[in-house]
Amino acid sequence: MMHSVELTLKQQPEVLERVLRVTRHRGFTITELTMTVNEDSTLKVNFDVKSERVIELLTHQLTKLFDVLDCQVITSSVAQTEVELSASASA
Fold first, then answer.
1. Spatial distance between the Cα atoms of 58 and 3, rounded to a whole number of angstroms
2. Do 47 and 34 meet the contact criterion of CB atoms below 8 Å apart?
3. Of 23, 24, 29, 60, whose CB is crowded by the most CB atoms within 10 A?
């Protein structure tokens, strides 16, 4: 399953390392990563992960990190696949 996650982080030298470590330890593989600096000096990190595990295993642990201000799952490939299947079935 593929998932897209958006994080808002405090700008600290080691914050990205912590996020990557938690992601790896929870059994998720990052397939794409984008990071930008916001006007308020926070970091916005968007990344796509791949795993057979449920995404809540990762997001729950990420929100526990003290440098993480916000964590949201943007999209999930399972939901997109179900929509595509129901659309093709009704056609």
1. 11
2. yes
3. 23
